Amino acid sequence: MQRTVVVAGGGISGLAACYHLAQSSSAPRIILLEGSSRLGGWLQSTRTEDGAVFEHGPRGIRPVGSVGKNTLNMLSELGLESEILPVPGDHSASKNRYLYVNKALHKLPSGISGLLRTIHPFSKPLIWCGLRDFTAQRGTQPDETVHEFVARRLGKEVADIAIDSLCRGVFAGDCQRLSLRSCFPMLYEAERKRRSVILGMVLAGGEKSHFDSALIRRAKKERWSQWSLRSGMEILPEALEEFLRGQGVQIHRDTPLRQLERTADNRWKITLPGGSIVADHLISAVPAKVLSQLLPRSEEPLAKELCQIEAVSVGVVNLQYDGMVLPVKGFGHLVPSFEDSILLGIVYDSVAFPDQNHRGAPSTRLTVMMGGAWFEEGIGNPDKVSQDQLLRRASEAVMSHLGICGAPTRAIVKLHKACIPQYTLGHWKRTENIFKYLKEQMLPLSVVGASYEGVSVNDCIFSARNAVEKLFQWPQ
Ligand code: FAD
User: Fold this and answer.
1) How far is the CA of 12 from the centre of ligand 1 (A)?
2) What does pTM read for this prediction?
3) How distant, in Å, are the alpha carbons of 24, 298, 373, 472 from that of 419?
4) Is 455 exposed, middle or buried (0-12, 13-18, 19+ CB in 10 A)?
5) Which among 165, 166, 162 has a CA at the least distance from the CA of 151?
6) What is the residue range of 277's domain?
7) Is 400 in the pocket of ligand 1 (CB under 6 A)?
8) Tell me, what's the pLDDT at 125?
9) What pLDDT score was predicted for residue 205?
């Protein structure tokens, strides 16, 4: 009899899991259950009548590494190549990234000459940090915070300014709490294998990957730093849905899983709002905390590990202004926590992706990101914060950081609750325990998504692919 695999959660991870399941030669019956009324999870775009696109979630996807190449292959297979908006290596959004420190914008150094000079806000040439890396001792702990690691290898100033900002930009998180081993596994491996992080990264960049296609070669040739999609990132879940429907996958929106029970023959009875279904295998693509609340009592050790994976909330404010009003050209700027803990950074969307500006007169599109690990202490309870409060804070930042004083011609405010999982110290052990438990107990359950092994869109898609590959290796 054909096996039934249920995928819980219709974000990019759940959709990617269905995609890989449907492509398998022994594809099971596939049912996707999404709790909300839309698919895509945090991939959310607004398309206006005059042709502008505003991203409320991810916008810039990196093409590098196996995970990046895997996503490019998926885009080709879905027929989305003509939608891609690449940011080539020589584009100002690839070359210019800024920090806002001491109430001023500072361009991050690039190229060798940038490393040899003292460039504010750093107090000495960054070449000294590189030399320090070559002499620093290998770490002895199984894990350390991102801040501790970078301070030890490259110096405290780089950790306080550059790495603090980077962690806020990527994880909306606090580098004094985030785990180096889980957030930046390449750096962890580089130190273990090569002793020098810089050397390790350079050598890792030359490692071969088995992914290849014309699109991958083009991305490499043009040195894309990242890419986005012309009609907005939400076109990706839309294309996936169309593909899955064509493959006979059953997709149910507004169908949140309420409870999981194990049956005597090692399957799942899944309770839904209007009844229940039975699955031979469940792929969970919902946040770890959500899964922990669905599991039966018998799986308490697993639930305990899952519920420790917290996520932070982010206020996302998209603003549009008439004219080209930015004082600098680049991808955007990040703000270290000592400068302003609430304001994580501002992305200059109209610089990186001008094709998403509205038709007609020139305009500037920005996205202001706020809160993250500092949301509660700096802004308040996410359940009580008003849209006006977030808009006011974003407009003030745009005025003081970029000198843009006029009123925006368009503003969209979103509050994403618990949207970015935080891989805090010891996360590697939690995930190891989770995967070990699933294997040892032979649970008919796989876990994928941003809660475990990478928060980027690429990581999520890759984790879904890996889980499906493993599923087909398991005893039937
Ligand atoms: P989710 O998107 O959270 O999907 C989970 C799904 O499960 C949701 O649809 C939810 O409704 C559903 N669900 C929840 N509970 C239930 C239930 N009980 N039953 C059924 N369904 C349920 N990454 C990048 O690579 N580049 C970027 O530029 C970037 N920028 C970002 C900006 C923001 C503001 C945010 C929030 C994230 C950003 N990310 C970026 C990260 C990336 O977008 C996310 O990590 C990724 O989209 C997470 O996908 P997911 O499918 O794992 O989870």
Assistant:
1) 7
2) 0.96
3) 31, 28, 11, 30
4) buried
5) 162
6) 4-42+234-309+424-471
7) no
8) 74
9) 67
CATH number of the structural domain spanning residue 450: 3.50.50.60
CA-to-CA distance for 463 and 244, rounded, in angstroms? 18
- Supply the CATH number for residue 171's domain: 1.10.3110.10
- Same domain membership, residue 413 and residue 338: yes
Q: Quick check: 46 and 53 in contact, CB under 8 A?
A: yes
pLDDT digits (tens, 9 = 90+) for 408-444: 999 999 999 999 999 999 999 999 999 999 999 999 9
- pLDDT on residue 243: 98
Ligand 1, atom 35: nearest CA belongs to which residue? 57
What total of structural domains would you count in the chain?
A: 3
Q: So what's the pLDDT on residue 110?
A: 75
Supply the ipTM of this predicted assembly: 0.99
Q: Cβ atoms within 10 A of the Cβ of 167, count?
A: 30
pLDDT score of 476: 42
Position 410: which residue type?
A: R
What's the pLDDT at 207? 63
Q: Is the CB of 11 under 6 A from ligand 1?
A: yes
Which positions of the chain have pLDDT values less than 50? 476
Please compute, for residue 210, the number of CA atoms within 13 A of its CA located in the half-sphere on the CB side. 0
Strand order in 268-272's β-sheet?
A: 259-262, 268-272, 275-279
Q: How far is CA 268 from the centre of its chain?
A: 30
End-of-domain residue from the set 205, 221, 251: 205
How many Å lie between the centroid of ligand 1 and the Cα of residue 300? 25
Residues 261 and 242 in one domain: yes
Do the Cβ atoms of 382 and 390 come closer than 8 Å? no
Tell whether 437 and 294 lie within a shared domain.
yes
